[in-house]
Write a structure and sequence with these properties.
By secondary structure, this protein is α+β, with helices and mostly antiparallel strands. It contains 9 helices and 16 strands. The protein has an 8-stranded mixed sheet with strand order 2-3-4-1-13-16-15-14. The protein has an 8-stranded mixed sheet with strand order 6-7-8-5-9-12-11-10.
Length: about 350
């Protein structure tokens, strides 16, 4: 979702939308929203038990009840995490801000071979979106560019890495970028210590694109690389909360970094997250350019619960967006990277 989604806050939700949230919570009998409250009560009950009379097995009966309650909470956590692994999820799009929309569209279409799928202007909110990719949005991962009126420059920060694009001939693509006046920040050639041919090019705003030589693939826009401060912590979160699989992990001590590829299918078939840990670096600046990843889900309410029990922070409570009724929820991972989950059915309706 674009900057419009970023501006929505819980107080803006109407009474009808709040009722929808409450109704959904009632349907989820294993809801864990009050987990912290249960924990506090459990500690109080424990102290009361210790002070209670021992006669008649009273303490034993109360402890048994408390143990049952704790077991039910643990079962609830397990069930929502198991559901997250089975949820019908797909990476939908990545959102970021640009300073000159027409210039960026021209670079992506003429140099990178993308297609302009749709464009929408929201004058009352003073921004314009453009969606580009290598296939229709209902089946492909795309980029959602956001231009905010009057803002021509952004800070990308040190945390964002690059996007990956699979091409059949890296050398030819690099020559095309040069011919169009684009910037090549790493010339075409094999990776150090390997045989895969890659190159890096910069778009007009400074976002880096890694060109990866591969045979024809169903999803050319194949990677989003972000830097993280604790790789094992991030892998655990992306597995549990986002329902992704660890596809591979590679340590490169010579260059002092480790990377993990996370996704919903194999790398040559879909878009994946490339999480990179640089030895000894635990924090990065986010800047104000890169915004978020959007992921489809069958249930934004259960997704929010999975995020909570996995240690993530909910930044937008699950529910419909005012005006368009598309249900979403948003969260931050342990490093502060934002993900927005979008109801699958609502997303398809929005495309219609």
């Amino acid at each position: 979702m674009g900057d419009m989604a970023l501006r929505v806050s819980v107080p803006c939700v109407s009474r009808i939308h709040r009722a929808a949230l409450a109704s959904s919570s009632n349907r989820c009998s294993s809801s864990l929203q009050s987990t912290s409250l249960h924990s506090s009560c459990a500690r109080i009950v424990g102290r009361c038990i210790d002070r209670a009379p021992a006669a008649g097995g009273f303490r034993q009966r109360i402890r048994g009840m408390a143990s049952t309650e704790a077991a039910e909470l643990d079962t609830g956590k397990e069930s929502v995490l198991e559901w997250a692994q089975k949820d019908n999820r797909r990476m939908l799009h990545v959102v970021y801000r640009v300073g000159d929309l027409d210039k960026t569209i021209k670079f992506y279409t003429e140099c990178l071979g993308m297609k302009l799928l749709r464009k929408r202007d929201i004058p009352e909110e003073r921004y314009t979106n453009a969606f580009l990719g290598y296939g229709p949005e209902d089946s492909h991962f795309v980029v959602e560019l956001t231009y905010n009126y009057g803002v021509d420059k952004y800070d990308i920060g040190t945390g964002f890495g690059h996007f990956g694009i699979a091409v059949e001939d890296v050398y030819k693509t690099v020559d095309l970028v040069k011919a169009k006046g684009g910037k090549v920040s790493r010339e075409a050639g094999p990776v150090k210590g390997g045989s895969t041919v890659i190159a890096f090019v910069d778009d007009p705003d400074g976002y880096k694109f890694e060109l990866i030589q591969r045979p024809a693939t169903p999803e050319p826009l194949c990677q989003v690389m972000l830097r993280v401060g604790d790789l094992d912590r991030s892998i655990s979160f992306y597995e549990k909360a986002l329902g992704m699989k660890l596809l591979r992990k590679r340590d490169n001590p010579e260059y002092k970094y480790t990377l993990a590829m996370m996704g919903y299918a194999e790398e040559d078939k879909t878009t994946v997250m490339e999480l990179t840990y640089n030895y000894g670096v635990t924090e990065y600046t986010k800047g104000n350019a890169y915004a978020q990843i959007a992921i489809g889900t069958d249930d934004v309410y259960k997704t929010a619960e999975a995020v909570k029990v996995s240690g993530g922070k909910i930044t937008r409570q699950p529910g419909p967006l005012p005006g368009i009724s598309t249900k979403i929820t948003a969260c931050l991972d342990p490093d502060g990277w934002k993900t927005v989950f979008v109801d699958n059915k609502d997303f398809l309706k929005e495309l219609e």
